[in-house]
Amino acid sequence: GAVVSQHPSRVICKSGTSVKIECRSLDFQATTMFWYRQFPKQSLMLMATSNEGSKATYEQGVEKDKFLINHASLTLSTLTVTSAHPEDSSFYICSGQGSGKTQYFGPGTRLLVL
Amino acid sequence: AQTVTQSQPEMSVQEAETVTLSCTYDTSESDYYLFWYKQPPSRQMILVIRQEAYKQQNATENRFSVNFQKAAKSFSLKISDSQLGDAAMYFCAYRSGYPDMRFGAGTRLTVKP
After folding, report:
1. How far apart are CA A61 and CA B59, in angstroms?
2. Per residue in B27-46, pLDDT tens?
3. Contact residues on chain A for B96, CB-CB shorter than 8 A
4. In 3D, which of A84, A96, A66 has the Cα closest to residue A6?
5. Which residues of chain A approach chain B closer than 8 Å at the C-beta?
6. More confident call, B100 vs A69
7. What are phi and psi of B8, to 5 degrees?
8. CA distances from B46 to A1, A18, A26, B40, B60 (A)
9. Which of A34, B2, B11, B72 is least enclosed, having the fewest CB within 10 Å?
């Protein structure tokens, strides 16, 4: 199957700082990328959908000014958590979708805000 | 709105035995896709199997097979000859023409040696 990478896998930061998470599709072109958030023992919650070269579409309740998403190329999307606070601590997962109907997921990034 | 329901928060199976995980969904669409993803302790989401709604034949991938009942909007996953490595959270997912997927709440599968 297709491979999606995420970097970093784990990040710890101080409250008030910004954190950038990268998501790359390694062997396919992801025309659409998705960002999810997963709380412990819960399902994935879609945060936003982005198409290459376009502005991301955010789900209701997700602050677009806090979670900045850039999808500058067909293989790279970034999520920047701006002015992070402890309540932003979570597991963030990206996925990419090419021409098919299947999403391929990255390994996730664990964010801890102190 | 489309919803996906997994009514079994936890399931347990003996190694080498067979287990079936349930999933139902609600939709008014006629063309859609269904998926089962596995999330082991590493938390990497792994595609287990997918089913196109227009296909009547149930999808099969080695020890994994589905029972797709379109009229009943049911999509169960059967794992045969269960292995210790099958222990994980299993998520059922649905998507139609709109690209994003809807996930169920998940079923935690434990495999007993």
Report:
1. 36
2. 988 889 999 999 999 999 99
3. none
4. A96
5. 1, 32, 34, 38, 42-44, 46, 49, 91, 93, 95, 97, 101-105, 107-108
6. A69
7. -110, 100
8. 9, 29, 16, 8, 16
9. B72
Is there a contact between B33 and A32 if contact means CB atoms under 8 Å apart? Answer: no
Full pLDDT tens readout for chain A, 114 residues: 689 999 999 999 999 999 999 999 999 999 899 999 999 888 999 999 998 888 899 999 999 999 999 988 999 999 999 999 999 999 999 999 888 778 899 999 999 999
> Residue B1: what pLDDT?
61
In angstroms, rounded to a whole number, what is the distance separating the alpha carbons of residues B110 and B47?
A: 19
Gap between the Cα atoms of A68 and A21, Å rounded: 10
Q: What's the CA gap between A30 and B30, in Å, rounded?
A: 26
The structure tokens listed for B59 are 């999808």
Q: B36 at the A interface (CB within 8 A)?
A: no
Q: Which helix (H) or strand (E) holds B45?
A: none
Give the gap in angstroms from C-alpha B104 to the nearest C-alpha of chain A: 7
Contact status, residue B41 vs residue B59, Cβ threshold 8 Å: no
Residue A33 φ/ψ, nearest 5 degrees: -125, 150
How confident is the model at residue A26, as a pLDDT? 94
Contact check, Cβ <8 Å, B50/A49: no
| Distance between CA atoms of residues B109 and B25, nearest Å | 20
Residue % of chain B over a pLDDT of 70:
96
